[in-house]
């Protein structure tokens, strides 16, 4: 009987601590995103032709976020019934946004990000089917434009 109470206590603690940490992380993400609202990012491979590119550089941002105890338990229950595991949705959202912020922090002085790509992978716990953590890597080409306003040639980033 004590084992049951112990498991319930762990679930309640996991829910409380996990929710608190997730809220704090989202608050940090929202605050930091406001600082980069003017930095455009695009998945396009072409640079606008009215801009003259002075410098281009590959930049990356990556993050690994682990699943908390309660989300792992909730996902196990959801797997019994099937359907989308909503407890992992916020985990992926936080990881993608944090990865993008880290990328932008690595090139905060650039003028534009192009050819943006996001790669996601899951890391499982010792071969079982439960997700242990999520890794997201974001990469793009950071562009710095020449201060002169003359017309440049479009740059194809596929070459």
Layout: helices, strands, pairs:
Blueprint: H1 2-34, E1 53-66, H2 69-81, H3 89-106, E2 112-124, E3 131-145
Helix pairs in contact: 1-2, 1-3
How many extended strands?
3
Spans of at least 5 consecutive residues whose pLDDT stays below 50 are none
Approximate shape? elongated
In the CATH hierarchy, what is the architecture at level 2? 2-Layer Sandwich
Name of the CATH class? Alpha Beta
Average pLDDT figure: 85
What is the third-level CATH name, the topology? Answer: Translation Initiation Factor IF3
Number of domains: 1
The structure class reads: alpha+beta
Report the sheet-strand fraction: 25-35%
In the sheet with the most strands, the strands line up as: 1-3-2
Order of helices and strands: HEHHEE
Can you tell me the CATH superfamily? Hypothetical protein apc22750. Chain B
In this structure, how is the largest beta sheet organized?
Answer: 3 strands, antiparallel
Q: Span from first to last CA?
A: 66 Å
Rg, Cα atoms, Å: 21 Å
User: What fraction, in percent, of the residue positions are helical?
Assistant: 40-55%
Helix tally equals: 3
């Amino acid at each position: 009987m004590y084992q049951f109470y112990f498991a319930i206590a762990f679930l309640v603690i996991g829910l409380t601590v996990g929710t608190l940490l997730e809220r704090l992380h989202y608050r940090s993400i929202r605050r930091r995103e406001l600082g980069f609202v003017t930095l455009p990012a695009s998945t396009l491979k072409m640079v606008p032709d009215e801009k003259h590119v002075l410098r281009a550089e590959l930049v990356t941002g990556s993050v690994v976020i682990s699943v908390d105890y309660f989300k792992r338990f909730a996902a196990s229950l959801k797997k019994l019934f099937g359907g989308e595991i909503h407890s992992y949705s916020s985990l992926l959202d936080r990881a993608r946004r944090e990865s993008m912020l880290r990328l932008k922090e690595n090139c905060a002085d650039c003028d534009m990000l192009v050819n943006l790509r996001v790669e996601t992978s899951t890391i499982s716990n010792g071969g079982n089917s439960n997700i242990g953590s999520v890794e997201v890597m974001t990469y793009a080409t950071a562009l710095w434009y020449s201060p002169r306003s003359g017309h440049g040639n479009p740059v194809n980033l596929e070459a």
